[in-house]
Amino acid sequence: MTQIKIFDTTLRDGEQSPGVNLNQLEKLEIAKQLERLGIDIMEAGFPASSQGDFDAVKKIAETVENVTITALARANRKDIDRAWEAIKDAKKKRIHVFIATSPIHMEYKLKKTPEEVMATSVEMVQYAKAKGTDVEWSAEDASRSELPFLAEIIEKVIDAGATVINLPDTVGYTTPKEYGEMFRYIKANVPNIEKVDLSCHCHDDLGMAIANSIAAMQNGATQIEGTINGIGERAGNASLEEIAVALKIREDFYPYHTNMVLNEIKRTSDLVSKFTGMIVPGNKAIVGRNAFAHESGIHQDGVLKHAQTYEIITPELVGIQSNNLVLGKHSGRHAFKDKIEQLGFELTEEKLTEAFQAFKLLTDRKKEVTDDDLFVILTDIQTDIQNRKRYELLSFQVQYGSHNLPTATVLIRDPNGNEIETAKTGQGSVEALYNTIDALIKESIQLTDFTLSSIGKGTDALAEVHVSMKIDDVFVSGRGTAQDVLAAAANAYLNAINRIFILKKHKASVVDSSS
User: Fold this and answer.
1) What is the pLDDT of residues 431-445, one digit of tens each?
2) Which of 233, 123, 232, 224 is nearest to 183 (CA)?
3) Is 285 exposed, middle or buried (0-12, 13-18, 19+ CB in 10 A)?
4) 203 near 14, Cβ under 8 Å?
5) 300 pLDDT more than 50
6) Any residues with CB less than 8 A from the CB of 64 and at least 6 apart, and which?
7) What is the pLDDT of residues 168-205, one digit of tens each?
8) The dihedral of CA 432, 497, 391, 385: what is its sign?
9) What per-residue confidence (pLDDT) applies to 294?
10) Residues with Cβ < 8 Å from 245, sequence gap 6 or more?
11) Distance between alpha carbon 365 and the CA centroid of its chain, in Å?
């Protein structure tokens, strides 16, 4: 069977999803989980885009050991230098250089002739290769490019030192037949194509990203690019977990395999969903909550008699445990530590103590603590920005009744250590709470999205809130978890506000150090 290399771009293309804003600690946790998942190449970010992205890519490159770390760069020396500085300490590294090759992109976006694009590509691949690293070259909007030109430029960039050639369906326009034919044409018309891995990168604008990726494999692609949960710009990217499981379940038909550790899929999906705030739809293949649920009586009867009548994938294959009740109020620190190690977390003694205390507080209010509950506690603590917070919620109270105007009173500690308090009203309890916090914050805040979900089932389930907002023309997201819905809402709101203050502080320190 042919091995297909998995190129994960969750931390780059995935983070470009509208409203997604990951901090360095969150990116690092996702990167470590992607390593456990067994992906081959990790696109950690676009270092030239911001100081924060540069720092995150650099930290990932210094931490992750068993995955090739790549950084994206436009076809210019400044971007390539920045990418190299970010990844140079990685054990396995790659610079990913891209430039548009379709007539519409060359004419209207780049304002370059095909000859100029070709010359730039060759020069920049040579420049990146001189750094002593693998080089991936991407033909942006390849699926709308002219095939003879595409074949000519690919031959030249391979001669210049490219080790991977990526042919993206950048706007999700092509069909499986067309996309497969493009790969077949390149294989037949580029004489040095056997020197490189041929890669596909598909977007899902017409719902064909998975089908197009498989068509590329069937016509010579040896690397598949995509994201966890299929997140990404616009309609997203090809969903890597769907491709990997499809190849496994239908290995009788597809002669391909990947190195992905399939029973790490659910945990990876949950982590990405939590940090990005992008809720996985219930009917999502492989990882949706209904993926293994059977409502129809006929289906239920069939599954009870023989699981494979309607269940082609076992939940255990992708890491879903049917019974994950684990610890209770009488569980000790040693049992707790063993459990978090089973869940794949590596906590310092200080964070372990904090997590155990949070667990004990939860057992006082919740009879059964599940793996999902522990997952929330541990991810919050592992990526906590408590020691860098600019605003801290000390207490709040909301008065609400069906015939009364909701009123909230909030006490917070401001960036100077002062305790400030006020009260405001709103049309609902959450609005009253947020209006009150707004009155205590100096910046102009505009809430753009609010999402509430539960962790687990039952009336005592944890509540999780994700918010998106615009603060002084900067878009940012935040999340909060608590057993009380309003507490979760308040935590999410302040989490987003504090992210802005951390970002501003970081930018100010960069300016000071460079002046």
Assistant:
1) 999 999 999 987 889
2) 224
3) middle
4) no
5) no
6) 31, 32, 35, 42, 90
7) 999 999 999 999 999 999 999 999 999 999 999 999 99
8) positive
9) 47
10) 262, 265, 286, 313, 317, 318
11) 32
Q: What is the pLDDT of residues 92-107, one digit of tens each?
A: 999 999 999 999 999 9
Tokens of 220: 């010579």
Residue carrying structure tokens 């095909």: 114
Tokens of 284: 């999502």
Neighbours of 67 (CB within 10 A): 23
Amino acid (1-letter code) at residue 413: R
Q: Is the pLDDT of residue 325 over 80?
A: no
DSSP class per residue in 376-439: HHHHHHHT--GGG-SSEEEEEEEEEETTEEEEEEEEEE-TTS-EEEEEEE-SSHHHHHHHHHHH
**453-467 average pLDDT score:** 86
Nearest to 481 by CA among 465, 469, 497, 470: 465
Please work out, in degrees rounded to the nearest 5, the angle formed at the alpha carbon of residue 85 by the alpha carbons of 83 and 87: 70
Task: Indicate the DSSP class of residue 307.
Answer: G
Q: What is the pTM of this model?
A: 0.87
**Tokens found for residue 151:** 């074949």
- Ranges of beta strands (E only) in 92-203 are 93-100, 134-140, 164-169, 197-202
